[in-house]
Amino acid sequence: MAILEFRWHARAGQGAVTAAKALADAALLEGKHVQAFPDYGPERMGAPIRAYNRIATKPIRRHGLVENPQVVIVVDPTLVFSARVIDDVDDDVVFLINTTKSPADARQALGVDQPVFTVDATQIAQEEIGLRKPNTPMLGAAAKVSGVVQLEALLSATEKSFSEKFKRKVVDGNLEAIRRAYNEVRGEAALE
Amino acid sequence: MNRETQVLKTDAVTVEAEAAEAPPQPQRQLLALTGNEAVAEAIRQIDPHVCAAYPITPTTQIMQEVAQFIADGRMRAELVPCESEHSAMSACVGAGAAGARVMTATSANGLALMWEVLYIASGMRLPIVMAVGNRALSGPLNIHCDHSDSMGARDSGWIQFYAESVQEAYDNILQAVRIGEHPDVLLPVMCCMDGFLTTHTSENAEILDDAEVRDFLGKYRARYSLLDVDNPVTFGATDLPNAYTEHKYQQVEAMKKADAVIRAVCVEFGAKFGREHGMLEAYCMEDADTAIVVLSSTAGSVADMVDTLRAEGRKVGLLRPRVFRPFPAADVRAALQDLTAVTVLDRSHSFGADGGPLFTEVRTALFDAPHRPRVLGRVYGLGGRAITGGEIRALYDEMETDTAPTFRFVGVRE
């Protein structure tokens, strides 16, 4: 695939824009060409927002408008029914949902035929970071599902950017959350 | 802010290393940066004497970061927070007349509020460098990308660059300082990038070593300065009919000379740093029958469609002027005159005109060509509306018909 395109669905304040940037930083560390950008609109806490990634091995020329993402990531489980997360996708898409549901149940809830992966990122965040902020665990799951970046690069990039802003304990909690989600994300078929 | 990442060892670095004995190795950084972050880095490296600004979406972050750099002791510039953009540009003019190297940033209504002073900056021949994040003008209020702000300022006597990517936005700012300050030019420079699409998109960008930037720019010594009391000069005096025309004529001549200076600076920048952008980019134009002409980030989406259509065996191309003032008319003519049809995409309109500003410019450039293609004008993307791959494909398709109207909007609901 020439350019892998990601679409993140979250609520403003859940850190999806930060997560998209972290995914880009990690892929950059691996020598890839990257983009990370959000949709901008009226900004208020809790409103549905979208963010995007493009990742490729060659330079990326297009900007804006992701027409048919290959990976759709739903950070907030309540958006499954409200934010049109299944719009504008092709058959080659995979969904990654933050939910307690099994992949089969989540797929049924979405009403789609394409592969669906699930991870209980909110619970992981609660246990590892002490906050119900699922963005960093979703990052780990996204890396696993898409295969676009190695876990080590993701941990390394996250450590760098988080160390500028947070105390060591918070950084370690986030790193462990990424690791756990990477290992705990499930699909209907086994992931390698 | 601490953005530590890998260091690139490019060919240019190797050449320099061989030329001098034990030189300090330039520390270039490859980072994922937004356009605003990259431009702020460029301003930090340039470290002008004065930045005067009034922040506005989507370029607020530029001066916010500059303020942080100054607070952290990483820049020495004097930051003048103003009460409006009119005041910000006025402060830039005052500082420039005093002999300072001056930079600022704005967008949309902020640029509009500077209008009066834009002409004063160019008329006083002050090489102010301004980053513009292109954004639609009110009303209705809209914060998203189009080119109505800077296209309205195209006659203000400023040199205008339009960047496709974050990398180019960064490179343009560095080159703009050299170009504007050149003794043959002495004109202000506007470095435009698409609001949000470039200002807020993180993507790969190589940041040069601070020392490389310093060497490339050199020290600024204003030719005329209000503070040079040994050589007193008058700035901003009344200019009556017996001299005003000559001053405007000199601005025209300076803009003509800017063309050669821009080319020379591009070549030098390319030789030193490995990226040569030129006046315009011709993509797949050698044997093209039809082409789209477009500015800024949309060129990337068009280039991707060119790749798709070329794979289908169609002879299509893309022409992206990087410089709009001075307009590289001869290059545009040479690139397009042998085609059968050309579609010019404008991200702004001149209400009541025969087409958008880029369209009229391109069509005028082609008028004196011995053969000229059919030239179609299309206005797209106003207020941030995205243009889809399907719409771009349709633009190429309609150039192969005889029925395409000379002018229309892309994707408008009538």
What do you see in this structure?
The complex is a heterodimer of chains A (192) and B (414). With 192 residues, chain A is of the alpha/beta class. Chain A has a single domain, classed as Pyruvate-ferredoxin Oxidoreductase, domain 3 (3-Layer(aba) Sandwich), CATH 3.40.920.10. In chain A, 38% of the residues lie in helices and 19% in strands. Chain A has helices at residues 16-29, 103-110, 121-128, 135-146, 151-163, 168-184, and strands at 3-11, 33-38, 48-56, 71-74, 94-98, 116-119. Chain A has a six-stranded mixed β-sheet. The longest helix of chain A has 17 residues, at 168-184. The two termini of chain A are 19 Å apart. The mean pLDDT of chain A is 93. In chain B, helix 13 (357-366) links the parallel strand 13 (341-346) and strand 14 (374-379). Chain B has two domains: 29-273, 3-Layer(aba) Sandwich (Rossmann fold); 280-409, 3-Layer(aba) Sandwich (Rossmann fold). In chain B, the strands form three sheets. Chain B has a seven-stranded mixed β-sheet with strand order 3-2-4-5-7-6-12, sandwiched between helices. Chain B has a six-stranded mixed β-sheet with strand order 9-11-10-13-14-15, with helices on both faces. With 414 residues, chain B is α/β, with parallel strands linked by helices. Chain B has helices spanning 11-19, 35-46, 60-71, 85-97, 108-113, 115-123, 148-152, 166-181, 210-217, 244-273, 298-311, 329-336, 357-366, 389-398; strands spanning 29-33, 50-53, 78-81, 102-106, 129-134, 159-162, 189-194, 202-207, 280-283, 290-293, 316-321, 323-325, 341-346, 374-379, 407-409. The chains are: A alpha/beta (192), B alpha/beta (414). At the A-B interface, helix 1 and strand 2 of A face strand 1, strand 8 and helix 11 of B. Strand 2 of chain A pairs antiparallel with strand 8 (202-207) of chain B, so a sheet runs across the interface.
